[in-house]
Amino acid sequence: MANWINGFEIKEGIPVKYASVGSGEGIKQITNRTVDFGASDAPLTPEQAAACNGCVQIPWGLSAVGIGYNLPGVPKGKLKVSGKVLAGIYFGKITNWNDPKIAKLNPTLKLPNLAITPVFRSDGSGTTYAFVRYLSKISPAWKNEVGYATSVGFPAGVGGKGNAGVTSVVTKTPGAIGYIEASYIIAAGIGAAAVENNAHKFVYPNIENIEEAAAVVKKIPANNEITISDPPKKATNAYPISTFTYGIIPQNATQLQFDKQFAKYCVTIGQKYGAALDFAPLPKIVKQAALKSIEAL
User: Fold this and answer.
1) What is the pTM for the complete model shown?
2) Residue 214 falls within a domain, yes or no?
């Protein structure tokens, strides 16, 4: 977002103020019209859309939720995990790094006898939404007992506020694992686990793997809600916790023309800033839908 704002201000000469407060709070603020636009890594629920009263969600970013870890003796990027293992960890049923279920996925690693500390977002967030939506597709028990939303009751673990907070807890806690927006994992230089996809490949949240996940999108619904969690196995190298991010603009926004101008910049020129932060370019079909929604405001 900072790169989008800087580039937009240079190009258009229009200042933009933005505070990263988490998707839950961002949706609340735009609903209350205390800001001119909102941003969320989670699409609006039907209840949120109704409360927002004429808000349009515009897919303007494409990235992923990475699995960061702090595991002494295990090199960065060498750990492999599956959705079932992640569900087990966050259920509090897999509690030690030498658990046979983890060892089976990592036969070449010497996993320590060390307690696992799962870390989750303590604030409402689209990162949480993307992660628990993925767990809900993998684990029927998770879907039934916990479900998915921007904020859920995690059965186990400790909380951190914001991606920065979760990153900090993982970095400072040997044995910790946390779901974190990919750009924060890159910035912090912590290890990212390879996650098993539906083709039974272990893949990282790299741009090409995120792009492959998004390539399964063939049709955009009228409300622009797009889900690419756990793509089918035909997407051989797709990263399974990939997600779109959204701008949220009210049709009666007081700064509507400026909002439209900024959103259009993000969907077009602004896409060039994504690669450095592990954001993939929007697929053509998504970009077209976003521009159509912007013009219709």
Assistant:
1) 0.94
2) no
